[in-house]
Structure formats: structure tokens, C-alpha cells
Amino acid sequence: QVQLVESGGGLVQAGGSLRLSCAASGLYFGAYAMGWFRQAPGKEREFVAHITWYGDTTRYADSVKGRFTISRDNAKGTVYLQMNNLKPNDTAVYFCYAVDLRAYWGQGTQVTVSS
Fold first, then answer.
1. Would you say 83 and 66 are in contact if contact means Cβ atoms under 8 Å apart?
2. CA 110 to each of CA 26, 37, 38, 48, 91: distance values in angstroms, whole numbers, following the listed order
3. Distance between the two ends of the chain, CA-based, in angstroms?
4. Which of 13, 61, 70, 87 is the most buried (most CB within 10 A)?
5. Cα distances (angstroms) measured from residue 17 to each of 32, 62, 102, 111
């Protein structure tokens, strides 16, 4: 059974930092591209960041470029999202995903940024 478990969310003041983690199990982690989406209250789920299976290519939403960094540790089966200079409109539930021939999703972790 595939499981993606996010952690690291919380409440932070604007300008602060958080690091999200997503631990995967039940799949061959190194074969999957990974990434993050987020969903704010009343809004559609939106793309945040993506990293290829080898970690050599990353892609970001324009709204987070220069502030967020995605990385992965294939030995640990974990993908990370380092979030710096957080803004109130970064407040959302953050979901990680794993994608190869099909996609898997985690349950999400809440990030709240106060002004």
C-alpha cells in the first residue's frame, strides 16, 4: 500500500521559514517524480514545485520562485520543501505527490502564515 505522509506544517509569522517533509512508503521511491501542490480555503488546488526522479531538474510556480526549494533524498524516501520568506498568501494545506505511470497523494499538512 502506497503512503505519502507530510509533516512540518505549522503557524509562522510573515518572513519566517518552514521545511515540509513527505515520507513515502510502498513504492520504489527512486522511480517517481515528486512534488507539492497547495490549496487555500475557497481556492483551487495549485501547483507549487516539482522534482524529477533523479533530482536533477526542478520546477516552481512563479509565486514561490526564489523563496521555496524542493529537494529529495532517495535513500530516505523523502521529499522536502524548504519555504523561506513566507507570506500570508502562502497559507494553505500543502499536499505532496508522487507520479510515474499513476499519481499518489498525501493527506496534506496545514501551513498558516500570520501577518
1. no
2. 24, 12, 9, 14, 8
3. 40
4. 70
5. 27, 18, 32, 11
